[in-house]
Amino acid sequence: MSTSVYSRYRAAFAQALAGALGVPAADIEPQVKPAEPAHGDLSFATFPLAKAQKKAPPAIAAQLAQTLQVPGLEVKAVGPYVNARFLPLPFTQEVIDGVRRAGVAYGSDAEDGKGKTVVIDYSSPNIAKPIGFHHIRTTFLGHCIANLYRALGWRVEGVNYLGDWGKQFGLVAVGFKEFGDEARREDMAHLVEVYVKANKRAAEDPVFDEKAREFFRRMEANEPEAMKLWNQFRETSLKGFKRVYARMGIDFEHIEGESRYQGKMDAVIDQIAKKPGVKESQGAIIVDMPYADGEPPVLLKKNDGSTLYATRDLAAAEDRYARFNFDKSLYVVAQDQALHFRQVFRTLTEMGQPWADRCVHVPFGRIHGMSTRKGQVVELDQVLDEAKERVLQRVKENVAQGNLETTDADALSEQIGLGAIVFGDLKHNRASDYTFDWDEVTSLEGHTGPYLQYAHARSANVLRKGGGVPASYDPALLTLPEEQALVRELMRLPDTVKAAAEQYEPSLVARLLLDVAAAYSRYYTAGNKDRDKRILVEGNDAVRAARLALTDATRITLAAGLTLLGIPTPENM
């Protein structure tokens, strides 16, 4: 397993402290924290040692600092803390060379999850409905989490678990007879129109609603004509979905739906009947286990014999473990479904499944305020269209003003628009709600995707103007405070990737990229005030080469992080 530069220095510092204190390094390492930047890079607080040593913490820190010698670190006492600072060499070269050697795979560790498998259930739209704005979070979060695990060497089985079973399909089927146009049978937009009309009709007409329920019962009975119509409409929806996913650069290992478990659910119910047991409640079959006051029971079959989400999710969990022997099974689904997944996982535990604790619900908050110029957002495609349209206006303005060069404004706007929407979501803590704002997400300034894409393009442009990537450089020449600050930001990506995967939190990567871009911007603009600080400094080829090497490492780090987030990386903006 490869070790990041930061982790290596942190471990060496902890080992030295442990040796001086006569305790295991494993006891010390959790106590080594990032230091205040003004005082160093690593810090160890001596307060817990005061009672045993019968000394004041500052005295303990001073004594420890005098005894410690760690290659590559400058160790000093700062009050009650023992702090360590990375020496410019070999630290600077280790970071830059590590980034450039890894390329766009920087931050990855193929050995970390070697031999492990994670199943990730995400996106999961319903057939005969569009991929709507409410699918943004599950789709982007799930895609990024999948990328993070792939980067760490896990075998990823991404599952797009379609809602292709249930009464809602009965609505489409019976609705098509009344509202459908045979010539548009393979037009997904038309199926959506039919569904909307049928859903409205069912709410007003109990007879029509019962016809939809009856059609679903025919599906559950595997009636040939019903299944033929279901399959035709399902394929029409899949074609529409795949086009949108391709636009976003998203692919799945498996596209399968609830229908996969048709005919397999009675076996699961029989298994539950043995342990923990089932019982009848108002004509329905439920899992027989204790429930909290007010908690609804886990329904397996309704009184008309049709199955429910819980039944199918239990069957799916067992099927996925049988197929993939997973080490983790993640469900990237809204916080609203927290009770559902707690109950499904608890049922698996009560069934005696030893892998039940490997199933994890990865919840997320809601988006507020999202709308388009055409009104309330319905389709994700529509959101991407509007993002592109808004960006295209700005791109054309910047081209006209001579601030931007591009040979294909349309393609560039598509890339920037997608980056705006993806980053606008992923920069937020997964569990929090947020308010969507068009002007904010499409801005070239601030905490936005276009800002990061611009930082990447700017670094690529500096390299082009500088004659390309230098074959060799002298890291000892990178002594400016802005340079050392930037190197420290680049250093963080590998550890951030691991933390983001462990916490299922892409926002950690998003926020790091903002820090990298900000540090590079400060470095770049420092040259506007002082010619000697310019990256493309004149009259000193050695310094110029060193600064281009650092710029190259910055470009690579931004590209690596943006790729993990699922954001395009244009080289001209």
UniProtKB/TrEMBL annotation:
Q: Which GO terms describe its cellular component?
A: cytoplasm
Q: Which segment of the chain is annotated as a signal peptide?
A: none
Which CDD domains is this protein grouped with?
Anticodon_Ia_Arg
Task: Keyword check for Ligase, yes or no.
Answer: yes
Q: What is its main location?
A: cytoplasm
- Top-level class of the enzyme under EC nomenclature: ligase
Task: Keywords in alphabetical order, please.
Answer: Aminoacyl-tRNA synthetase, ATP-binding, Cytoplasm, Ligase, Nucleotide-binding, Protein biosynthesis
Q: Where is the Arginyl tRNA synthetase N-terminal domain?
A: 7-86
Q: Example GO molecular function term?
A: ATP binding
Subcellular location(s) per record: Cytoplasm
GO BP: any one term: arginyl-tRNA aminoacylation
PANTHER family the record matches: ARGININE--TRNA LIGASE, MITOCHONDRIAL-RELATED, ARGINYL-TRNA SYNTHETASE
Write down what this protein is called: Arginine--tRNA ligase
Q: What is the lineage of its organism?
A: Bacteria, Pseudomonadati, Myxococcota, Myxococcia, Myxococcales
